[in-house]
């Protein structure tokens, strides 16, 4: 897509989800099963969570070593027929050419979009010009890929007063959307949304504005980040502890057959059938 037309009527199904009446609620998955289960529940698209990918490998979030695992996850998700966006961190490189190569790989795997963040693992922000160059390189490499430019000014608690200027530079570089995790003040959300051309994405905050209110404030996309992954871990531990302690365990789990059916091309019944839950 030419940068000068980046915010004309969007050409892809995923982009169009950001330009309609209500904000897109984008739940974040960490593997194929979690993504497929969310789609089966009726969600139109899913994102991925970098924390879920990293933790599954026994690595901290933000580690460059998760790049190949991120691409591998995209390939697994690409086997499905649903729309998904990949958390690509900062592109796993400071070289825009390498970020462009990553964008091509993720698009070839089936990704409809990616997040590119300016926050660094050391808690600093990348220079605006460098991050803008990454965005431009990604768009040139994969024009149909929805590039969601994330700024971590609020997440890291630095340069908040420069948030608007950073996002404006990312828009000029060709970003299709912009993401400000940690932004939760209603007045600040509304002011920023009014200033932007690209759709504004915020991170859902328990206890903060809900989906309807965020839509009214001008938000076009609401991400759940690592929330579902953390809740899944907490639920698994709580169920195991309840059984150990002789307390009733939550019986809301999917059956073996339901999980088996989430795999593309899975035969009905599986190896254990409906009643086998230890597979």
Summarize the structure in words:
The chain is an alpha/beta fold and 279 residues long. The chain has one domain (24-235): TIM Barrel, CATH 3.20.20. Helices cover 39% and strands 12% of the residues. It contains 11 helices and 9 strands. The chain has a 9-stranded parallel β-sheet. Strand 6, helix 7 and strand 7 form a beta-alpha-beta unit. The longest helix is centred in the last third of the chain and has 18 residues, at 227-244. The model is unreliable at 1-7 and 267-278 (pLDDT under 50).
Number of strands: 9
Q: Per CATH, which architecture?
A: Alpha-Beta Barrel
Shape: globular
Mean pLDDT: 92
End-to-end CA span? 46 Å
* Tally of contiguous helical segments: 11
Domain tally: 1
Q: What is the third-level CATH name, the topology?
A: TIM Barrel
Radius of gyration: 19 Å
Task: Give the biggest beta sheet.
Answer: 9 strands, parallel
* SSE topology string: HEEHEHHEHEHEHEHEHEHH
CATH superfamily: Phosphoenolpyruvate-binding domains
The CATH class designation is: Alpha Beta
Helix content: 25-40%
In the sheet with the most strands, the strands line up as 1-9-8-7-6-5-4-3-2
Instruction: Please mark out the parts with pLDDT under 50 across 5 or more consecutive residues, or reply none.
Output: 1-7, 267-278
Structural class by sheet pairing and helices: alpha/beta
Q: Please report which band the strand proportion falls in: under 5%, 5-15%, 15-25%, 25-35%, 35-45% or over 45%.
A: 5-15%
